[in-house]
Structure formats: C-alpha cells, structure tokens
Amino acid sequence: MLKILFLFLMASGIPVAIAMAGSSLIYIVVSGDLPAFAVVHRMIGGIDSFPLLAVPFFILAGNLMNNAGITNRIYNFALALVGWLKGGLGHVNVIGSVIFAGMSGTAIADAAGLGTIEIKAMKDHGYDLEFAVGVTAASATLGPIIPPSLPFVIYAMMANVSVGALFLAGILPGVLMAFLMMLTVAYFAHKHGWGGDIKFEWHRVSKALIEMAVVIAWPLALYGLVQAGLQPQLTVAVALVVLFAADRYFNFQAVLPIMTPVLLIGGMTTGLFTPTEGAIAACVWAMVLGLAWYRTLSWKMFIKVCLDTVETTSTVMFIVAAASIFGWMLTATGVTSAIAAWVLGFTKEPWVFLLLANLLMLFVGCFLEPTAAITILVPILLPIATQLGVDPVHFGLVMVLNLMIGLMHPPMGMVLFVLARVAKLSLERTTMAILPWLVPLLASLVILTYVPSISMWLPRLVGM
After folding, report:
1. Which candidate, 57, 173, 70, 164, places its Cα nearest to that of 446?
2. Is residue 44 part of a domain?
3. What is the dihedral of CA 40, 46, 51, 52, to 10 degrees?
4. What is the pLDDT of residues 323-360, one digit of tens each?
C-alpha cells in the first residue's frame, strides 16, 4: 500500500519530497499502528545528524566560488593548457569542469556556472551548438564525483561510512571519466576536421604547467615538513603566506582556486579537521579569495549568495527529512527485506547484482532528484551489497555516478533543463545532443563498477 500511495502521489505531479512524507503519513493514519506525530518525529530525527552540518557549508562554498568570478579564471587557465589541441574548446570544457568540480560539488552548479561561459565561447568559435551542449552536460557529471561532493555527504550519512573515504574514492574515477571524455572530443575533432582554437605558444603552456606543478608540489612539500616534525598549524600558516606571495608575484590564473580540493582532502586525511570543519574551511577560503584577494565579490553579492544557500539547503534538508520517514516505513513494513530476499534468491553473484542495481539506479535517476534517490535507494540496496561483499564506499561511488547520468535525461533531468535554458535549445534538441556522450559515461560506469580497485586504491592507501 505504501508503494502504491507514493507512486500515485508522484503521478499526480506532487513534488517527490511531499509525496514521500505524504504517503507515509496516510499509511500511518490508515493503518492506525502508530500515532501521526511519528512522521514529524522521524523526519526531525532524519536530519539530526552531524555529517549533515557539512551540507550548507559545501553549498555556500560552491555558490561563493560561482559568484566571485572564479569561473573566468578557471576557463582561461584551461584554455592556456589545452586550447591549442584539436577540438580545443571541447578539451577546455572538460578540464575546466575537472577544476570547477573541486569547488562546486554539484553537477547543476557546474552546468549553470562554467557551462554558460563554455557554451557561448564554443558557439562564437564556430562549434555546433549541439556539440557544445553535449560536452558541457557530460563534463558536468564530474561535479559530484571529484571532491567535494554534496551527494557523497548525503550517502555517507545514510550509509554510515566515512565522508573522507568517499572523497578520496572519487579522485581517480573523475580522472578516468575526464580522459574518456577528452578521447570523445578528439574523435569528434578528427571527424569534423577541427583544429586548435589558440596558437601553441610555449610560454603560455609552460606557465599553465608551472601552475599545475605548484598545485601538486605545494601539498607534497607541506606533508613532508609535517612528517619531519614541524608543528602542523604553524607549517600550514607559513606555507599559505608563501603561496599567496607566489600568486601575487607570478600572477597565476588559477592556483588558489584549484587549491580548494587540495586543502579539503589534505586536511581530512591528515586529521587537521573533520569533513564538516573542512566544509567551513572551504567557505572561509572562498570568502578570502572573493572578498579580499581577487575582490570580485561585493558584500551585497555575498548576502544574496547566503540567501540562495539558505533556500537550497532548506530544499535539500526537506528532501532528506521526507526520505528518512519514507525509508523507515519501507523497512518497517518489510519492503526492503522482501526486495533483499528476492534479489538474493535470484542471484548471489556480486556482478549480477551490480548489473541489476545499475539498471535500477539509471532508471530511478531519470525521475528523482539525486538527494531523494540516494535516501530512498540506500536502505534498499546497500544491505544487499554488503551481504554480497561489495564495499559500501565503492557502491556509493557507483550509485552517485548512476544518478548523475540520470540528470541528463528526461523527464526530470535537471542538467538537461539547465542547459536547454542556457543554450536556448528545445528539450528535444538538447536530448539528442547529449545522447552521443552517454558512450564515455556508460563506459566509465562499467569500468568503475567492475574494477573497484580504481576507486578504492586511494582510500586504502591512507588507511580509510
């Protein structure tokens, strides 16, 4: 009855969060087994979680970066690095999304923020609008895979796993996905005879490579000094002063923005701060860059960003609260146990279960917002995965990637709607533009599903 109520409310056009909470309330009232107040009590309990404190701060950090002119710096850096390759701006689109993914944490922010700049630039340089929309949509899926990631935080809370482990698990898969997307860009460039969009100039490329070297060398040097016995807090403070001085002297394009995920991952893996404290540190870093260093963020804009963050956080938290009571009711009524028994009766092979789970998650991702989908699917699928020996961190990565691919499809794909509006294309043309890019995304999904060592190598390396 609970499932029928939920599907009926969803089919009536009611928002998914209200459908979940409403179907649970109706079921409790009709059955009479529990007081109606249990719905409110369970919803409040569902968001009474310490890891969820990171959600508003990660949203705020992404909004600050998105509104502080950081996107232009990222675009210019990526242009200098790979814009001279054949199909240049397509490669720029992918590399820019890799970098921006380390700040936004969501696919929609990537598509709406960096995508606006990238689509306009590609259109101005003579690229097909459909190609520009397709590569932008595909690269936007990197947002929640490369840390920080809002869906990872939600999954970690639901599955009771380490946020830091999930963040580390997303790094190599993000690199793999970017590589396959760049191969796809190279294929289209060869097919259509596209050249580079800027001339190869060694001084411009070398400056970009130097910036990349600084991003890699700075945390390694910092880690070495801390391991040598220097006080961590003092070492970090001095290293930051040196970094800002170098940025001012050499006029780097994007070293400081790229440092956002480096600081987050480094701080969490070395124990300097928890994921929640890391989210706060990301906000402070974004404010320092926007308000004080680059001075591209005004106080008026800062207040607007804060209000937007409150609105987004409220939506996410309401979805989590509604999904918590719905998931609890699914468990209490035996739905999850029945599904688990059916799946385990059908197969006990992990690879078959992962195949079925992928098909289910791809389907669900086309209809539900990722936060709602995670909170519904985790109580159903994770116990089965655990029984079959699938690591919950690896399964979380697979789940999030499935749901990100779902964001590109009708009827509910938010990335699809955002890019249709940005590019001023019909939904039909936008959908057709995205279809070829399912090839690298689905290839990435298959590889990451059945080669778990790619995602689990870094977490195991640091003992998470």
Report:
1. 173
2. no
3. -50
4. 777 777 776 666 666 766 777 777 778 888 899 889 88
In the 8-state DSSP scheme, what is residue 263? Answer: H
Q: With beta carbons less than 8 A apart as the criterion, state whether 409 and 373 touch.
A: no
- Which residues span the domain enclosing 343? 8-38+54-461
pLDDT level of residue 397 (50, 70, 90 thresholds):
very high
Distance of CA 296 to the CA centre of its chain: 25
Residue with tokens 């107040």: 37
Question: 45 in a domain, yes or no?
Answer: no
| Residue 47 within a domain | no
Distance CA 255, CA 242 (A): 13
Cβ atoms of 61 and 283 closer than 8 Å: yes
Q: Is residue 49 part of a domain?
A: no
The number of folded domains in the chain is 1
pLDDT tens-digit series, residues 37-51: 666 777 777 677 666
pTM: 0.81
Is the peptide bond between 436 and the residue preceding it cis, with omega within 30 degrees of 0?
no
Tens digit of each residue's pLDDT (9 = 90 or more) over 58-97: 778 877 877 777 777 888 888 888 888 888 888 888 888 8
Pair of tokens at residue 72: 């232009």
The CA radius of gyration of the chain, in Å to the nearest whole number, is 22
